[in-house]
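sorry for the late reply, my laptop died twice this morning and i had to redo everyting from scratch. anyway the thing you sent over, i finally got around to it. pasting the sequence first so we're on the same page, its 151 residues, then the predicted structure underneath. double check i copied it right bc i was rushing
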Amino acid sequence: MRFAGAAAMETVQRTFAGKNPEAAIYTRKEADGIVLLAASPHRLVLYVRGAIGTEHIVGALREARAGGHFQNDDFSALVDMRDFTGVIDWRIIPQISEVMPKGDSRTNRNAYLVRNALFAMLAKINAVLFPKTQHATFDREEDARHWLGWA
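ok and here's the structure:
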């Protein structure tokens, strides 16, 4: 999925920022894709679009932590992979747990927006890595935000 120019990418960024007011936005982009991360107290929203390398997900998470976000494990996450058309590097999953550890004393929630069973498998893998976090998959953002208690 190639963006139809810089204007299209800017529109995606503005739309994402509008859905996540008052959040710090971290961006990683290439010609064929974008990773957007919104960081706010107790919330992480991650949107991946196009054929961007999955290493950019870890990069955005590291940047958010360096910016002072997610220093503790008291947050829930919304991960939107519906528009991701790249190749999943499965080695990224343990890297995410190293960058964003969640402790044993929390009952956070992670909602995954997915388009098929392959992406739903990511939620199952994350459930093993983060056993104290509740995980669920959705195909509609409204349902995910409601389950997270954000609606």
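DSSP finds five helices and six strands in the chain.
thats about all i looked at so far, will dig more tmrw
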